[in-house]
Amino acid sequence: MAPRENIFPNDPVNWPEIVSYQLLSHFVELGPCQPSPLDLKLNAFPKKKNSNGNLRSFHENYYFKRLEDGTFCKRTWLSYSPSLDRFFCMTCKLFGLIKAKTSYLATTGSCDFRNISKTINLHESLPEHIQSEISRGLYTSNTQIDVTLLESTNRQVAENRKIMEVIIDTLVYTARQNIAIRGHSECVDSNNRGNFLELLGLFGKYHAPLNAHLQKINSKKYNRLTFLSAESQNKMLSILAEIVRSKILRDIKKSNLFSVIIDTTTDISNKEQFTFLMRYVNEQGNIEERLVALVTAPDSTGRGLFEVFCNITEKYGIDWKKRLCVQAYDGAASMQGKYSALKTFIQNENPNASYVWCSAHLLNLVIVDTCDCCIVTKVFFGDIRALVEFMRARKRTASFIEWQQQLYQNQLYEKYGALLKALNSIASANDSDGDTSSTAKSLILRISSFNFISTMVFIRQIFSITTPVSNYLQSKSIDFIQAIKLVDVAKKQLEDFRLDNNALEKILNEAKQFAFDHKLLEQDFKEKIIKRKKVMPGFKDSREVMIDLSLLSPERLMSYSQCGGKSLPDDAFQSVSKWIKSIDLNKLKIEYLTFSSSLNELIDGLGPKQLHNITSTLNTYGEENDSENTYSEKSESEDEESKNENVNVEKILHILSSHDLITAFPNLYTAYKSLGTIPASSASAERSFSNVIYNF
Ligand SMILES: [Zn+2]
Known about the structure:
Layout: H1 21-30, E1 48-49, E2 55-56, E3 64-66, E4 72-74, E5 78-81, E6 86-89, H2 90-95, H3 98-101, H4 104-107, H5 116-125, H6 127-177, H7 194-204, H8 208-218, H9 230-255, E7 258-266, E8 272-281, E9 287-296, H10 302-315, H11 320-323, E10 324-329, H12 333-336, H13 342-349, E11 354-357, H14 359-372, H15 375-391, H16 394-407, H17 416-428, H18 434-447, H19 450-473, H20 480-499, H21 503-517, H22 543-550, H23 554-562, H24 574-579, H25 585-597, H26 599-604, H27 608-622, H28 638-644, H29 649-658, H30 666-677, H31 683-695
Parallel strand pairs: 7-10, 10-11
Antiparallel strand pairs: 1-2, 3-4, 5-6, 7-8, 8-9
The structure holds zinc ion.
């Protein structure tokens, strides 16, 4: 019986069959429906003819009960329904037990206005109605208490939130700065309670709620929630980690394309730790490398690692079978070997997941291997290791430092002379035992041989080329093209060094001078150094793709922009489109040429500083002859290298995303995204290890 137009939300006609707890408080709040005649449509209660022919109607006087002392009291139970023109008992409906709830005044109501006085009085005296009234009274007084309780809890909650904010910020700070959270002694009267508690103490000075909280705790009054216990810290950290992880995973899902960087290492408890990093391009066109999981691997074989890989990807809903385009490892056999290695298990299900050997590791392996393939350098590094091992003892280190301060003072890198002096004093010291003296003596002989000195000079020369490259390769921001260029420059320098006919003589002269300066007995060779060569494998695994990707290098793109109308090689981007299935080969070619032709205007949008850098690069590379399909873009000098640093893959991704050009160049964007996704090194995986090992 729905009313045509009902302006009374508390009209009994709106009462539902069953009243839920929420609706109960809603209707209690609205109160009984007690309209005055003026509220009604006809400005009066409708008049009805009863069986005797008399006109009868409801009257607003019934809303009040006349008490014995002549005063009036409101009947909070009596509800009139304007739409039905009937009266009801709201209290029995809302608070009645089964008998009251099913009584006619609670369900159908009454329109017997002739006997209304009698009906009302009778109902008011019914025990079940009185019971309902008691329930209502209890309910309203309780909710009033509830409300005040609620308000005070809210205040407490708000205060706790403020405190939590500082605590969480402090935790995040310690995590970011990589400093230990806990102190050795965290009790109230300790001098140093650890970074976390000490920082909170400091903040408390400037943060009233936190200060009150800390004082409450320190006064040792009973307090259930301190938020400062180790359990709280761990709980909060894991919650924070989950939040961060879910954000990363959301970004990765949006990016649609990602690579994994996996590394394993043995932690201090001798368990194999498996780090799982992902590299992707986010919506703003930034290249991200993020740690997603760090777990213990029960089994370090290829199959075992693959199981861990599957567990992680399944747990976090990572669609590696479709979206994974590159896998990068440090070169361990269980990961990259031909058979039954992690790489192969992944490629069995996703052949497009190209494999990249971490170039920083590769470089280190090359160096280690090269040093090992020649007896002279092998002995040299053996001697160094023995020396380091011997000098590690605290007393010996102290002697060395003492000599170094005496001999060189501010020259930090000059160690040789101090080392000799220290070894001499250790060998002749009264408290040295026979073993120590003998080892010290033989070490002196070994490191003062002319062989050692000349090798040292030689190795220093090599490392002055390779060490900066190695360091740079380990930075996150480097993209694959930059890595290749860096390696090529280093390769060129090493080749020049080898081709230099005077190089050997220079080294020998330097070594002789060194031996003379340090008054060493042996100042020349007794035998000749024999040179040998060893070839190391390169990035063979994905070479075809790399050739294609080299077209995407900023220099190439710019050279196309300079000579507009030049067409691409026929086979351009073929392997890339095979690798990344979502790329349309023909569209990519068109997009590439279109984009390169408008590159100048787009760069104008980047601001004056970048403009300068990029145009200078343009001038350098504009004339360069475009040698088709070779990926080694050899730079002439390091000078050009530095000019190029400002235009990298990430910058182009930025141009595409910041100008809202992704919809215009979808294939090109995907191609650049895939290029940005290729890790140049797995160094991030190691960084996350060192955090694990040293911080927990
Ligand atoms: Zn009632």
